[in-house]
Design goal:
By secondary structure, the chain is of the alpha+beta class. The protein is built from three helices and twelve strands. Helix 2 crosses helix 3.
Length: 281
């Protein structure tokens, strides 16, 4: 330890301390205090400037996070409001659909006063562009039985083919097991609407058993005849889109596009009772 006080390092350090402490004192005593202050300020000013800049930076950094939190809260509130508005729009659309369905339902009842309807919702269907069969949320508990016609205000959909306590299965008129007695509105020609395995992929069915010279044309409207089928008379079936002749069998076949959009069904009506058509003698 004693060697340190005799070393050159100690002597240099002691000299610097004397100079730093003594020189300002001497200069102040000589009336040069301003020079001392100027010197000190020259050294300290950059440090003060840096400290001030650092303070501003830290202050701005804090303000950034405060603003970020405020914007985050505003975004949360706006998101909740948007969600509320979307729900209101969705509920309004559902209400409008329900109102439209009720208008359609009541209109059908007024048009067919002898019909007894049971409304039903689709709860399952095959994965296809045009539905050939589907499941409804009505069954024997609602008075549904096999063979009952299924319709909408636009026309025939199909018939009930299977019934459970709370559900039933429906086969549409484009299914290959479908058969509906029909007539051409314009000419009165009579035939049978049948489903076809190939045509159902295009959402079409066939009007068959027409005479080769039968008066049928593209655009003719087809209705149920009420004869030889489970359907009452005068239910709209669809429109002829193509007519072909079979010279070998000497018959005509017409392709019919159903009036009901079978690719967009959500609600239907089951006819639980109606007046059976009896042709005049």
């Amino acid at each position: 330890m004693g060697g340190f006080f005799k070393s050159k390092s100690f002597i240099v350090l002691l000299t610097l301390v004397i100079l730093l402490c003594g020189v300002p004192t001497i200069l102040t005593a000589m009336g040069q205090g301003s020079a001392v202050r100027d010197g000190v300020m020259a050294v300290v000013t950059p440090l003060m400037r840096g400290a001030h800049a650092l303070g501003d930076s830290l202050s701005g950094f804090g303000e950034y996070f405060t603003e970020f939190d405020r914007l985050k809260e505003e975004n949360r509130v706006l998101s909740e409001r948007v969600k509320e508005l979307e729900e209101q729009v969705y509920n309004a659309e559902l209400l409008e659909e329900e109102n439209e369905w009720m208008r359609t339902y009541l209109g059908a009842k007024r048009a067919h006063t002898d019909f007894v309807f049971c409304d039903a919702n689709l709860i399952g269907s095959e994965a296809a562009t045009y539905i050939s069969s589907f499941t409804l949320d009505r069954g024997s508990a609602s008075g549904i039985a096999v063979g009952m016609p299924v319709v909408t205000a636009d026309g025939i959909v199909g018939r009930v083919t299977e019934v459970g306590l709370t559900f039933c299965r429906v086969s549409t008129i484009i299914n290959y097991d479908s058969s509906v007695g029909a007539y051409v509105e314009r000419s009165g020609e009579v035939g049978i609407i049948s489903g076809d395995f190939e045509r159902r992929r295009d959402g079409l069915c066939l009007l068959e058993y027409l005479a080769f010279d039968a008066d049928v044309e593209v655009g003719d409207k087809i209705f149920s005849s009420g004869l030889g089928s489970v359907y009452p008379r005068d239910l709209y079936i669809g429109e002829i889109v193509e007519v072909t002749g079979d010279a070998y069998n000497h018959t005509k076949i017409a392709l019919v596009k159903p009036a009901v959009d079978l690719s967009d069904l959500t609600k239907v009506m089951i006819l639980t009772d109606y007046t059976v058509y009896t042709p005049a003698e």
